Amino acid sequence: MSTRTMSAHGDLNQVAETITREMQKSAISCQLVDSVKRDEGNCSSMLLVFEKYFMRASNRASLSLMLNQIGDYVTADMIGSGGGQGPLFKFSWGAEDSFVSTAVTILSDLGFRDDQVGK
């Protein structure tokens, strides 16, 4: 499992649209599995779930990306999982790290930086 949190000023809908487009362009096997959006007052949240096949490890990994916006401040929480092999030892070839790194690169290009809150 791989995790990362980043944040920036921006618009949740534009961030979600850009990251969805760029993630799907990053690999033929990368697809948006589903998304959910919730709005409550001046807060909005969107969960994006991606899946990608990694040929080198012959497995699939998932990326769950939670976007939260309060005012004009957007936080992105990323969790990559499922890239391991084996029922007991969960040996990983690093697919989940690679998947999260792709999202980090896209978000960095949008001005997002590592969120140090709570660390």
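(ticket continues) Second input and output from the same batch:
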Amino acid sequence: MSEKVFVESLDPSYQYGYGVLMLKVIAEHALSELSLGGALEELRILVDMRKPLVAVRALLGPPLPPIRVMDCARVQEAADGIHVVLLDEGQAPFLAKLLREKFGGSLEQLDRWEVVVPAGAMPAKELERLVVSHPQERMGERIMDALERVIPVGFRVRYAEREGNSLLILASENPIPDGWVEEVKEALRKPPSPIPPEKMEGIRRKVEAAEILPKFKEGAMPWRL
């Protein structure tokens, strides 16, 4: 699997500093915990401890199509109406909401998996095409959640920019001048520089042994433990 998470320091003297290495661990953990591996093509993080500044650029993957009734349930016509049998439990609340909105109290609930839509209420083929949920919207929320986990608590001054499939966020404790934005964009024009695996081995062992990750969920900053 190709590497997706890159963390680099804008200060050459701190290229493999503790904060840089920890941010990579945190970012990888966030993507894994939120199941975002397929939603992002690349997550690139630039840090400068002197300013201080954290910049996160996410390249989003192809948009996800909407989930329709036919994607998560089996639709069968019968003498008593149209039977809708749930196949994907993850879509259960969205499907239930859709059917209630469309058919209200006329639905007959046979069990937790199956309901009957009254005969003549809607053609079965039309019912199959109804949109149950929009995964892209929920994916966007999870991506923002991941980015918030990467940005240290206290970095409340933000600059955000969205262009095409690229989302860029700068965060700092201090006002963000235009010069910082241009510095980050200039750095992002260059190919990412992966951290050598041997640099990550030690920090990963320390994280596993000391259970450091929960501290970051509580808001500790990588360079201020």
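Agent notes: Residues 5-63+136-217 form one domain. The chain is about 35% helix and 25% strand. Closing as not reproducible unless the customer responds.
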